[in-house]
């Protein structure tokens, strides 16, 4: 699919005098922007009092944007219900795991399980859809589900809904007791109404209890989102999106993704480096002004999988310093352009900068915009303009299937977090390290959902840490001719987070039994015979399969049987590189020995080369400046 | 006393299909086990609904075990009351120090002060004793009092009981005000009903208030345990035990120990190393797969003192990786045997492995058993079998009195925690370091209670940090011919945690006055004249006694008068070694210069040598392999 | 103004048998003390039950002190209301930010906004003033406002009072919504009664909301203190003081300072070094027994500004180890004298040692006094006596105006804490580092309030981080001929913590626009062209002014226009030293190159030299011992 690549921005007409709007729109159009997102925090201006709808100003704002030739994404304002909503629904607030209601005064102050609030959210969405359904070019539901830890709520509403969810799932407490193994510590229930939310227990709750609460919480998000989508659909044929945040794994994005046409996300490379990554200080120093070389790419590839038919955007692109990380440096000159091109290289339809003009008031005063608070051009402005010019001579940015597939499974993230078995054993981190390892070899990657039923077209497939392989994926793995690497911990659990018997990994035709799991201190990794180490997680395996990687003591690390490999531990960088290099080669691919800061994205027709480092790099005989992008 | 040394395991028939039981019992017997502990988490199966007693299955399980020649320890199931108990007694939950009820869903979810729950605990205990009192060979009350910080509860029930406890102790608020020094900040009370639990005060509460709350809390445990013991005694002459956890100091084990015949504890060397010890990363790396060389031995010696007539067991012996520490590595091959022999060397009657078969469900799925979840033998199985074979040629493991006595006083642990005066000043740690220092010199140690009235038979006695010397112990110290070392902080406090006047240590005939106490940064220890340092805690002493250790500035560190020494600070390893070496020599003992990883336990008839290191060690001309035990 | 310099102590007659009093008073007088503070924690003895006044014992104590020739400071006992107060006013407790009432059992257990308690505080104050107003020589209100984080309370009383405060300030919610920018996330209010306290919001509250809560909380302290002052004034002409703690910035000391004659504070150099300073371990090791070389001096200079007409005391001087820091070492011999002289050098009228006799009971047993608990002289006694002797030959300790002025603004501390924008960006720390930088150059400093209207007599003026310059100060800066350095972040905010437009710093006649702010990792500072670095905070400036310091990339760090400089970042020590040296030289001062441990205080007539190091230092050809003071 070849789409026009466009630029956009996020605009808050309600923040500015109405006589600014015309000039703002004109400057956006001059800059070369196509899209403007509006409305997603404006509920108190759209309905200042219950039932008092004030949509005219929004209509005028849209008209002005349209008048300048811009297209509009309208956000439903449900992430920021006004103060009067709380008077109507005093118990609508989410409750934290210590039992404190999470109060009004910022944003996302609602519990997904509160029916009264959900009805209000549907109502305002329906009203907006009725009024603007034929007018705006796209929609966004709510904003950043899960930001500020807002998926889990321990409210009364959540408790009631969780009990109902369990009753529907298990039908009887006997079935639930068996599934959870509640006999273990006399945790058996006679009534669904006796089951509480799994917070504030004396020691860890039953992991099945905790996992079901995470599943339930994710379902509540999908239910909430689905209701908004339905309300919009009834009055609009414009595509619908939700705008996701980075490294939010508390709900299943594939489930909400299926409800809509487009997935968008917020790419804040510098904020994420400081706030979302475990890498060491040397890494954070090196990339302080460019961001991690793989974190944005990972999410680009992830949201390409979340969006229906691969349709995805960056809805909020960092244009300068942000305000919310522990440290908020300015990007190196050129990075705003660089990040934009990187998104396009991974298939983004649109990259929208957050925000048009920096706000002089409230929580995000130190979050840069394309304009300064006084309306002068900020640094990002000229870089966006450069991209706009370059887009006219755009290389063909198709999104062909990549040669490598990497499974990402939200339920596994929950299962690992419920039962990490060792400090640092985090599912996202494991998958991300594998992704980074593939990228360091110059490979382009598709992230795929755990329900994928076919692996056709892939030469290499990885599914590290997927706790329970779905039947379709298991069949696809068995049937594929691609090189496949499973493990560690792949297929190690039942749906209820129990240990299956026969013991894992239980892959048909693959003789391996994990007889023991251990987790190890970061400072005592286990040396592999040929270099590198296993860290954090290691499985002892009884097997007759060939071990092509083993510890110095001879314990298998990587088993291989035909095209199927099983990795029994968490490899460090050196071991991972050797394993991936061998597998890629066996798959007929050509792994590269890239310089530290160089990454490549191959779209099928075009090969992009990105230098993420702070210095110029000579690669392939070509000097790539810092913040440099090359394509051919 | 010479007893037969036996092996055992912990078994949960309720976790497995009944048709497994027969084979399980047979395999236990074949392995050479003698004892099986059952029942301690089974309340929801013994009484699925209030009054609906279902004891038949347990009867059948016991019969099957008996049929295989095994002996049975029956645990009262009171650590895991069923969910219906909460419906009957909604306020039975303990409350944490922030005021949150500690909810159902795991275990130990009760407040020791709740009379309604205590009555239920007595009821089920009585019913079990009536039914099985003549049948089982031993009893266990509840399980692991204090695990998961469950001694202190800030519930309404605890508040009421604490007021009553204070009223009984002080008889008048005037007496309490005087004892506590409540005039200090106008904290005086007119009524016992005005006294609250000492949590959530603006800054630290009165230390006497905090200490009395700890005393009260400990008494509540003894009261709860004593009631169960009485209920059993009425129907059974089998010995009764409680199963303690490692490094739990929140209640006085000597008080509960006096109520029963046997003390048992849970020995998890690798979990403890990671989770319960302050030692540095190098230490944790070295012993990651063997456990700390002294931590288990310390508890073995402690529980020998807690058990009546020195009777003690390991009720739960780690048989492979556990699930609850920050990291959970596998033991080195041989360690399971090694730990078992170490326990026997310290006088254990029985070492029981936790657990028979690894559970495939619920909280402890990654806790190894002797069997894997699928019933195959795990690593520990063969090592247990080896011990069973070796036991037939058992060296005579008597428990003669050791030459060295070390006082351990729970009330001092509370006093130090209430008033540490400096970060890192922890009573357990102080005593443990002295114990470790003695062990590094090859000395065998008896831990003794603070009420000990005679020191006969000991050559060397240490009582570091015992805040208030009891009258019997003070008399024994004055009367003994043994070398005695007191301090730091020994006898530094009244019962109410006040400073006595005359000032400490106030030992008759020993001229020393602690005129000033200081606590010091770990990185600025005070150098001793002859090497080594004082760290953390240092007392300035006015004295006419001879200082046989002093700082480089000449301040006394160790005073000596006849056979009595007073240590004015917390010695580092080098200083401690010199002090202990001198004292042991003066006591007529022969301190050894052991290699780092070697420890010796002398039982009177047999000398055991243990190599705790990861490598073989040549000692006394003999090569001891890692995980090696030698005896002669 | 030349005043007699005096010594004093803090005494608690209610802690001791009445037959001790006479001898205590005689020993105080013999020691050379002039002042004794009493009464501030004695409410439960002054009024054991509601209305049951027992003032006679206090009268007798005062008579005895007077009889020995001592003068008395009487403290109102309102920091420690008795237990019966809580029965009368169960909701008088402050509430922490998690919603927990902060319970009785220590001290400062009240909410400043509780009218009922405030009336009680006024009542007891009035009664004491009536009885003792003509008798005592000075007064102290309450004690250590803000100690133990007691300024902010999230109680119902505070909520009601905050709403009223907002209503009075803004008059309409429209005005409030505009000032706060509540449109930002639909945070608009229709009623003041809908506004909650800014705790427990989902993510950060509106910074204007948070700042107004801090302003309100500070005003509540001033209201509480003002009421006590009025009650005393009605019956006494003796000077009134409040006794402040170190590094408490949660309320505006200038506001309370204006209500009274004298400011006093508590100087605990060793406690502060451990507990209140961010400096690294090497620094803390070096000064472990002397205290930070600048922290006490900073507060001395600060409280000279807080006290009316520069009148200030040290009300509590550390006399030996304290009990409340993470580590509590003993001072080096001589430090008690040293600290006393340092206070006099900065203008203290009186230095009072806390406390007379060490308490053998309650919370502060390990806090040294001039006497040991048994009444023997402690180390500090002889040093105090030495000062008393030296005072007779006192150098003339006038307090002339210093050549350098440094603005300290409590509201800026609140604004920075609400919106630090980067970890480590703390207002107090910034000002303190500038102060330390000035002191290292041998300069004496006056700290001045942000409302200062004239800078006459100063050669050099600094106002780093003052978020909003007051109109008087702005005019003074514009009008002065002194060298002035503003920035970073000076005048960067409106009163509502918004970004002003035109953009900061907006100093008339100074062409500079801060176009971007960034915060940076401590380990990635920005190198300055001529050495040193900018750390933590950096502003990008558009300017036509001359940059006399710039980054290696040429970005301005320090702009200079005539006598006005603007510093665009947070300088490290090397850069700061160069900047201050240049400015001081331009101001006609003579910056010195002092040894690391030497500090100088010039009072106009006398120059004191202090050696804060642990070793003797040769300075100006003279050997100054450790803990040494020289004057000429």
> Could you say what the CATH architecture of the largest domain in chain A is?
Alpha-Beta Barrel
Q: Tell me, rounded to a whole number, the average pLDDT of chain A.
A: 97
**What oligomerization state is this entry in?**
homotrimer
Pick out the low-confidence regions of chain A. none
Strand ordering within the main sheet of chain A: 1-2-3-4-5-6-7-8
CATH topology of the largest domain in chain A: TIM Barrel
Shape of chain A: globular
Look at the structure and name the CATH superfamily of the largest domain in chain A: Glycosidases
- By secondary-structure content and strand pairing, the structural class of chain A works out as alpha/beta
Considering DSSP H and I runs of 4 or more, what fraction of the residues of chain A is helical?
25-40%
How many E strands of chain A? 24
Tally of separate domains of chain A:
3
Largest interface, C-beta within 8 A = A-B, 48 and 62 residues
Rounded to an integer in angstroms, the radius of gyration calculated over CA atoms of chain A is 25 Å
How much of the residues of chain A is beta strand, in percent? 15-25%
Distance between the termini of chain A: 19 Å
> Quick one: CATH class of the largest domain in chain A?
Alpha Beta
Number of helices of chain A: 18
Main beta-sheet strand count, sense and barrel state of chain A: 8 strands, parallel, barrel
GO molecular function (chains A, B, C): beta-galactosidase activity; metal ion binding
Pfam families (chains A, B, C): Glyco_hydro_42, Glyco_hydro_42M
EC number (chains A, B, C): 3.2.1.23
InterPro entries (chains A, B, C): Beta_galactosidase_Trimer (IPR013738), Class_I_gatase-like (IPR029062), GH (IPR017853), Glyco_hydro_42 (IPR003476), Glyco_hydro_42_N (IPR013529)
